[in-house]
Design goal:
single chain, about 180 residues, five-stranded mixed sheet, two-stranded antiparallel sheet, 7 strands, about 25% strand
Length: about 180
Amino acid sequence: MHEPGKAEKLTLDLSQVLRSGFDFKQMETMTTLDNELELVKAYLNIEQARFGARLCVEYDVNADLDIRIPPLILQPLVENAVRHGLMSNVRGGTVKITIIQKEASASVNFTVEDNGCGMSDQKQQEILQEDTTNRGIGLRNISQRLKHLYGESICIESAEAKGTKIYFEIPVLPLRQMGG
């Protein structure tokens, strides 16, 4: 790489991703939507440097960036979309991150979708099973954390050769109810 500024930015993004990935104490507390989105953007900057025009990213964020959410709840979904959905295909594709806060119901909807290779119904079922011998541990962990915290798990819609959509909804609770 002959662009020192770009190399420096990628190094900073990599350090942010690594720091958050190894901060296990953080898993016990909440983070802000803004912090989680910064982590997602850092991760995607690294992947876009690797894959160039093969990786397109779209954001549709209409939510209070200061709301508290569980840490590492969005970035692993985006990583799965890139690694398993898009980059397993030579042509690449688009990952879209949608976060919409519903004022009337005091909840936030999160959606990560890609137009990649998709997965079979059997693969979708394997991912969410509690059997830890199967792959898909990241999705299973997120689903279990959401179920533990909110009583809901992730939803998966996928079709082979068309892409995958993973979504969930969480309530916006007052800070005192979140233990943080």
